[in-house]
Amino acid sequence: MANRTWVSKFILVGFSGLADLQLLLFVLFALLYAVTLVGNALIVTVVGADRRLHTPMYFFLGALSISETCYTFAILLPMLGGLVGASRTMSRAGCAVQMYVFIGLACNNCFLLAGMGYDRYLAICHPLRYPVLMSRLVCAWLVAMALLSGLLISMGQTLFIFSLPFCGPNTIHHFFCDLLPVIRLSCTDTSLHEAVTFALSLLVIALPFGLIVLSYLYILGTILRIPSVAGWRKAFSTCASHLTVVVLHFGCASAMYLRPAMDDDSERDQLIAVSYTVVTPLLNPVVYTLRNREVQMALRRVLGRNVGP
Questions:
Q1: Domain membership flag for residue 270
Q2: Half-sphere exposure (CA, 13 Å, Cβ side) for 16?
Q3: 51 CB-contact burial (10 Å; exposed 0-12 / middle 13-18 / buried 19+)
Q4: Is the separation of the CB atoms in 161 and 182 below 8 Å?
Q5: In this structure, is residue 195 part of a structural domain?
Q6: With 0-12 CB in 10 A as exposed, 13-18 as middle and 19+ as buried, what is 248?
């Protein structure tokens, strides 16, 4: 033990295997990052500026947009720097901070999506009591609890992972400090840490997703009792955007974290990671601006006010 060299820095390999495509990847990811920032900024601005969107559903959407903006900032900026020749080295403390932010906001996003599903359940299944059951205070409490729960889970998991001894290889075959790639660099048995990581991933992904599925089962039962086709369409239209984002978000997260621990393929893992760190945050504002009529109309009203005489 005394002769071991303790790792104080990590090297993020990222996409270094695609040396000839570094500039192309930088331009592509920079454009996607810019679209994500602009899209989420538009949602937050429109939700804040248009009084017709001052409802619980759009309050959750604004919180999700802010969370995903911070989430992509923590992951994509270092990756973009590495693509244009900046140092791919990250200190142990820096790696821990990035992991803490990533886990905390990823958990927060899962819980926010569950809160949005609960909101749709109350709005459709209990419309008369909806203003009381989903008041501003309740909305604020749910958003605060989602963030606090995510940060507490992240703190425990990050401290647990970085309590491992790192005394051998320091090369992370990934473009950010993800959980399993860091755990596997430890010079001791990591079976317990991998099992705990899987259990927490199962809890954070399966529990909110299960609550969303349960909410939509009740919603479906209520919708089927509506006598008119127009009523069906109106009810489904309020849920379509949320369901699309849920499928994308939980599908990508499950593909990465709810699979056998021995199934290790760094190139495939990076491809899946791109889907939930780049593509999913991008599709959230795209889905809500292209598929949601209320957001489209509010966007026109806000832009019309700003460019009008």
A1: yes
A2: 17
A3: exposed
A4: yes
A5: yes
A6: middle
β-strand pairing of 171-172 with 89-91: unpaired
| Number of domains the chain contains | 1
Judge whether 4 lies within some domain: no
* Domain-embedded: residue 127: yes
Q: How many residues in the chain? A: 309
Chain centroid to CA 232 = 30
Query: In whole angstroms, what separates CA 19 from the centre of its chain?
Result: 29
State the DSSP string of 168-205.
S--EESSSS--HHHHHTT-SS--HHHHHHHHHHHHHHH
Does residue 109 contact residue 208 with C-beta atoms inside 8 Å? no
In CATH, what number is assigned to the domain containing residue 87?
A: 1.20.1070.10
Sequential pLDDT tens for the chain (309 residues): 445 557 788 888 877 777 677 788 889 989 999 999 988 988 888 888 878 888 898 899 899 999 999 989 899 888 888 888 766 788 989 999 999 999 999 999 999 999 999 999 999 899 899 999 999 999 999 999 999 999 999 999 999 999 988 887 788 888 889 898 899 888 888 889 889 999 999 999 999 999 999 999 998 888 888 777 766 776 677 788 788 889 888 988 888 888 765 556 667 778 788 888 888 888 888 887 766 677 777 777 776 665 444
Q: How many CB atoms lie within 10 A of CB 260?
A: 7
Half-sphere exposure of 83 (CA within 13 A, CB side): 22
Q: Which amino acid is at 118?
A: Y
Strands 171-172 and 9-12: parallel
Residue 300 φ then ψ, to 5°: -65, -40
Domain, as residue range, for 223: 9-302
> What's the Cα-to-Cα distance from 101 to each of 38, 70, 107, 108, 109, rounded to whole Å?
21, 9, 10, 10, 12
